Amino acid sequence: MILELLLSGGAAYALRKYYKRTVTKKVNTTLEVVNSATEEIPSTLTSSIEKEINVDLIVIGVSTSLSMLGNLAYEPLRLLSMPGWFYVSIPVFEKAFEAVKQRKPDVSIPYTVTNMACFGLGFYATGNWAAFFYVLSRKLLSKLERESKENLIDVFGQYPKSVWLVVNEIETQVPFIAIKENDIIVAHTGEKIPADGIVIEGTASVDQQILTGEAQPIEKDIGDQVFATTVVLTGKVFIKVEKAGEATIAAQIAQILNQTTHCKTESQLHADVLTQKSIFPTLVAGGLLFPVLGPIGATAVMNAHFGYRMSIVSSIVMLTYLRLISQSGILLKDAKVLDTLSKVDTIVFDKTGTLTLSKPYVGQIHITPGWQEETILKLAAAVEYRQHHPIALAILQEARARDLDIPSVENMAYELGYGLKVYL
Fold first, then answer.
1. What is the pLDDT of residues 23-44, one digit of tens each?
2. Chain center to CA of 214
């Protein structure tokens, strides 16, 4: 049995270290390629940790299957399950070793003890199943954390792949990462403004709801400040860049919100404290009950330690709530507010614009004698046909609901304070 342990453990350790070196090398190479790229920015990169968990899940899935087949059909297959079992458990074993060396309680210690007990008692299938559920919980936690971050990226991190840069009085399309301070960029109707800056030419109606919460578009003229991730609804503006990339206000907000996934609520902190305090008593209880219950009973007592399960469950609950509320347009700077939310009896809003509906609708059309509602609506829809601001969308939606034929227009012009001028 000692020989089996040495061979399986040595092989698993060597494979684990080889995989870690390979992944690290690939990640560094990928970062070099991304940093040197000039044509495209990937919207997201799967973390190396999640890739590692995916590999662990496959390995332990195969190992668990082998151990079960060994119990049911062909016993030597149980031995083949050992390398995979130890492969996924090595990080926990290393963590337990460091915790013992530093004399600090950690949930990895009872996990390691029960794994070694399962090996010594010949319960290979039990040990594999324990490792399988451990990896599965890590996978779920990693997935929820990634989705929570992606929801924030969808709000503040979606920048255009390319922007219009003025070079020698000519609009030239360049990669987003190429813009820098003092560049002159152009934002057209329907486009996101890619940087913070000052309008130096042109006028536009800009949707700033993503930053201010207000659904009402803001008219921007020469000298006005504009911000990255806001949208030009109508018009065209030339912008002198003041801040680009991670220096923009939107990027800084995203960084703050992104840290929310790493914050711990009071419930999580309480679970961590309870976990640390219960590790030593659990190990002592297992040792004291060994003469009475035997090795199997003592192992079961130590395996009943709730610490890791409590930490996983509390983290999953917190990340799930963060994901749900971010999908509803609510952003939290600190996850600890989830603990106090049930005690809140008053909510103060600093502006009423955050309470208005972002999608207006046509309530009633007032006409003068000699005109019909359908005619007025048809003309208004023709003027607003290519516009993206909320009022235009409401008019177009009403025209489609009435199944009206919208006439084509030409020579469209936008005048600040007056609106659109067209010829029918």
1. 455 444 444 433 433 333 333 4
2. 24
Tokens 């492969």 belong to which residue?
87
| Measured torsion, CA atoms of residues 308, 314, 320, 325, in degrees rounded to the nearest 10 | -160
- At 302-329, the pLDDT tens digits run 777 766 667 777 777 777 777 777 777 6
CATH number of 162-255: 2.70.150.10
- Domain 373-423, CATH homologous superfamily name and number: Calcium-transporting ATPase, cytoplasmic domain N (3.40.1110.10)
- Regarding pTM above 0.70, the answer is no
Q: How many CB atoms lie within 10 A of CB 317?
A: 15
Which two tokens mark 201?
A: 């030419």
Let me know: does 155 contact 140? Beta carbons within 8 Å: no
Q: Find out whether 361 and 397 touch, Cβ atoms under 8 Å.
A: yes
Q: What is the secondary structure of 190-240 as a DSSP string?
A: TPBP-SEEEEEEEEEEEE-HHHH---S-EEE-TT-EE-TT-EEEEEEEEEE
Q: Which has the closest alpha carbon to 178: 197, 157, 200, 161?
A: 161
Q: Where are the domains of the chain?
A: 2-156+263-327, 162-255, 373-423
121: pLDDT strictly greater than 80: yes
